[in-house]
């Protein structure tokens, strides 16, 4: 979750504790100490953090099925209505790197709480908004709060992992909540829109956010601050680059890929990215540590993540419209249509850590990307006469299973060997890649669908769009296979020498 960005991601061993005197051995007659309490407390802390991540993931999609009623209720123009989604995407995707580094520098729990507090307040403001402008401002503020809170979630989850298996379980839970939460957002959005008001798609965050803010300081262990000067130039250039690229991509399907708006936004993003690259090599405490990108496996994991998230936009954008416009589903029924995908993702979160421990990352990625490809090609056969059970149910279930199989090993490649002092930055990098990959994938898929569109009909162009999604996962498979071959050659060379 992704979520659909639009119109919707770092494990390390725990920091060592100061040496303490050896405890006095208990008297032989004393019963062994009960350690269930601390373990239970740690588990509850993980649950609290995951609830926060679920809320952030839900908000990338929960308003999607409510957009028609939001537009009618606040008299939005069609162009203005798209910014109910775009404002959140732009702020969230643009500020994730900054949010990750702020957590490393000033304390992850502190930044997490600040971001969640802003997100909760903005949700209240949006739920009470009576003008289009106020709702868009509230959605942008939600995105800022989410960008501050989200990188800390993964860092806090993995900071206490005692071994590789625990890190894999934390990554699987994070992936399931992030991606499954996006599909669950469609279900919840349809439910509250059908039987209540669109305003509850935002107001539902308020009691949840307040509960997490009360519980987190008591149950979640933070990490020590990392001393050093904050990289202001890196923060401005990284944020500006991400915002410029996301802004350009959001408008590309509407304005055209060769328009001044699109090319200008991409050019500004490229210039700011170059400034970031130069700056990060010169400052003592960079926002984006260059060493994070020196690993071939990490670069490969980021590429696979971007491609898979980009392909998922075909599900969140096109299938949502297909079941409503062609199959005639209402908001609640449309949300429930995605329940098999959600269940598949959550079910795989229980299985994937064990598969990862037994087979390793590469086999899971190879199988997962092939399964996703098959699902997209299956969806390419939908027609006006198709039914949900015959044309949509199977591909969504397939997507849930194989997405759940793919995201955890891809995330492990990115954050699996990062030290605790850079866990927030790596988490921000992973989630920024997810958002940018989603924005790029959505822009490409929507553009391809538009090329084959027929006025008044939605189905023409779907085959080409889903084939494009399949092509993205094929490229992800090729990258994975290439990494595997390179690793084998490197191992063979090392043995020979």
Describe this entry's structure for a reader.
There is one protein chain. With about 500 residues, the chain is mainly alpha-helical. It is globular, with a radius of gyration of 22 Å. The N terminus is likely disordered.
Quick summary:
The protein contains 18 helices and no strands. It is mostly helical and 497 residues long. The longest helix has 35 residues, at 462-496.
Supply the helix-strand structural class.
mainly alpha
* Average pLDDT, all residues: 83
Please report which band the strand proportion falls in: under 5%, 5-15%, 15-25%, 25-35%, 35-45% or over 45%.
under 5%
Estimated radius of gyration: 22 Å
The major pleated sheet works out as: none
Summarize the helix and strand pattern as letters: HHHHHHHHHHHHHHHHHH
Helix content: over 70%
Low-confidence stretches: 1-38
* Span between termini: 43 Å
Number of strands: 0
Give me the number of helical elements.
18
Q: Which word captures the global form?
A: globular
Layout: helices, strands, pairs:
Blueprint lengths: L35 H23 L8 H8 L3 H29 L1 H21 L3 H28 L4 H32 L4 H4 L1 H15 L12 H24 L4 H21 L15 H31 L4 H6 L2 H21 L1 H19 L8 H4 L1 H23 L7 H29 L10 H35 L1
Helix pairs in contact: 1-5, 1-6, 1-8, 3-4, 3-5, 3-9, 3-17, 4-5, 4-8, 5-6, 5-17, 6-13, 6-16, 9-10, 9-17, 11-16, 11-17, 11-18, 13-16, 14-16, 14-18, 17-18
